[in-house]
Write a structure and sequence with these properties.
The protein has 505 residues and is an alpha+beta fold. Among the domains are: 270-460, Orthogonal Bundle (nitrate reductase domain fold), CATH 1.10.3650.10; 467-500, no CATH class. It is built from 21 helices and 16 strands.
């Protein structure tokens, strides 16, 4: 058992407002500079929709992530032969139009135009070429709130598995629905960008698993852009280097959450340490598609298990990090309650960002001046969802519908139970039956309710002490990769350097 620590995240989609505060916070701090104008390390997409860049989920077009060939994982975009022949040409790169051409306005025209009968306007100007743009055709959130339109929603790759009847019903006016999908780099356990980079410029930090790009080593070949199926590596056209989300690691090292987490208005974001067994990574990558999510869950270890704790200490994980893993909200959502699911597990990158599925509006109608659900239940049922479970399964569980149903049943059960407890207009006996059928106890329902609705700042973001001064000292001694920190007690500091996380099969 090779136990390692990973900073991991959960996004609760049922609470996302689509306000883009997270995107603006990231843009102001990380990508507000020349060459990065089109980059949105954090973006919020409207689903159904084509996303950013356009159709990023369509790996028939972009060839991102991993696939199994003769039972072994192989990158879709490149290999040793293609990597050599295509080193100066990437056939599967998104073009600027797949993102959008960033622009500003020539505001001085409003003040400097000569007097005349026409009202002067501020012309849009490309921030890349400096030339006038006649027509703005796309933007970073161009399909925002346009779920159901034939231009965006109907081209969503996740709709391919729906029957013609389901697609027709989905786009009926009274059934139109959309939800928000916030995205950042997943900091995967088996990242395609790391496996694809021929320069070895991309790596996972040993102490926390954050995936970074060395700007000194990067040669701008852009294999990382092709290899990442989520298209969260970007090319800076000004510096000639690739860039990506760094999970605001300087903030983490000072005990603060990333900027997008800190600024989230809906409080949908959770951050914490998970312990995982690196020896099981290859097994999880090779799992059948229907078992990919469960295989990834099996990698994540119980931080309360004495055997796991002993193995973690033997691997150099200090006690204060183990304590943080025991208090991690991510572990509870992903492993204990089985409510959070990885985005497109079929890409086989083992993403460390998980999503709690959204509870969409139910189908109802006005009767007697009131909004009534047809079966009389306040929250409806899975059968009344405006988006088919099959769609959410394509998005979040590699097509395994039962995993989505399991998560949704638990959300429904908690809502029914807490409605019975707090309001009293739902029969408590029936609510307890629904809770039991969902595999939850009353205590777990209270805990889920608290963590979803009432949780405080330091419980949403459980950040362990990084003790960078100790790491620097070890690095200066030249013992990186071999020396581990002495065991510490709660309240003390110290984290050891460990072997770098595996870079992919």
């Amino acid at each position: 058992m090779d136990v390692r620590a990973q900073m991991s995240m959960v996004f609760h989609m049922d609470k996302c407002l689509g306000c883009h505060t997270c995107s603006i916070a990231c843009k102001n701090i990380c990508t507000d500079r020349k060459g990065a104008e089109y980059m949105w390390w954090n973006n919020v997409e409207t689903k159904p929709g084509t996303g950013y860049p356009t159709l990023w989920e369509d790996q028939d077009k972009y060839h991102g992530g991993w696939t199994l060939k003769n039972g072994q994982p192989r990158l879709r975009a490149t290999d040793k032969v293609r990597g050599f022949t295509n080193i100066f040409f990437q056939p599967y790169l998104p073009q600027l139009d797949d993102y959008y051409e960033p622009w500003t306005y020539r505001y001085e025209d409003l003040f400097d135009s000569p007097e005349g009968d026409d009202q002067p306007i501020a012309r849009p100007v490309s921030m890349v070429t400096g030339q006038n743009i006649d027509t703005i055709e796309a933007g970073p959130n161009w399909d925002d709130d346009m779920g159901g339109t034939p231009v965006y929603a109907e081209n969503d790759p996740n709709l391919r598995g729906l029957s013609p009847q389901e697609r027709e019903e989905l786009f009926e006016f009274q059934r139109l629905a959309f939800f928000y999908l916030p995205r950042i780099c997943n900091h995967c356990l088996n990242p395609g960008c790391v496996g694809a980079c021929p320069a070895g410029a991309i790596y996972k930090r040993g102490e926390d698993g954050i995936v970074l790009i060395s700007q000194d080593k990067c040669r701008g070949w852009r294999f990382c852009v092709s290899g990442c199926p989520y298209k969260k590596a970007y090319y800076n056209w000004n510096t000639g280097k690739s860039e990506k989300c760094i999970l605001c690691y300087p903030r983490l090292e000072s005990g603060q959450p990333p900027a997008c987490f800190h600024s989230c208005v809906g409080r949908i974001r959770y951050l914490g340490v998970v312990l995982y067994d690196a020896d099981r990574i290859e097994e999880a990558i090779k799992a059948p598609q229907g078992d990919l999510v469960e295989a990834q869950r099996r990698i994540i270890l119980d931080p309360h298990d004495p055997q796991v704790i002993a193995a973690a200490r033997a691997s150099g994980v200090p006690d204060d990090w183990i304590d943080s893993a025991q208090r991690s909200p991510v572990y509870r959502f992903v492993k204990k309650w089985r409510m959070a699911l990885p985005l497109h597990a079929e890409f086989r990158t083992l993403p460390m960002l998980f999503y709690v599925p959204p509870m969409l509006p139910v189908i109802a109608k006005i009767e007697g001046g009131t909004y009534e659900v047809s079966d009389g239940d306040i929250f409806g049922s899975l059968e009344q969802m405006r988006l088919p479970v099959r769609y959410l399964a394509s998005l979040l569980s590699a097509g395994n519908e039962e995993l989505v149903r399991e998560s949704m049943r638990k959300q429904y059960a908690v809502r029914f139970y807490m409605r019975a407890v707090k309001v009293g207009d739902v029969d408590k006996g029936r609510a307890e039956q629904i809770l039991k059928a969902a595999g939850l106890t009353a205590e777990e329902a209270q805990e889920i309710f608290y963590l979803s609705s009432l949780v405080m700042y330091n419980e949403r973001f459980v950040i362990p002490p990084y003790s960078r001064e100790y790491n620097i000292e070890v690095a200066e001694l030249g013992d990186v990769g071999h020396r581990t920190a002495p065991q510490t007690h709660k309240g003390e500091t110290g984290i050891g350097f460990r072997k770098p996380a595996r870079r992919g099969a």
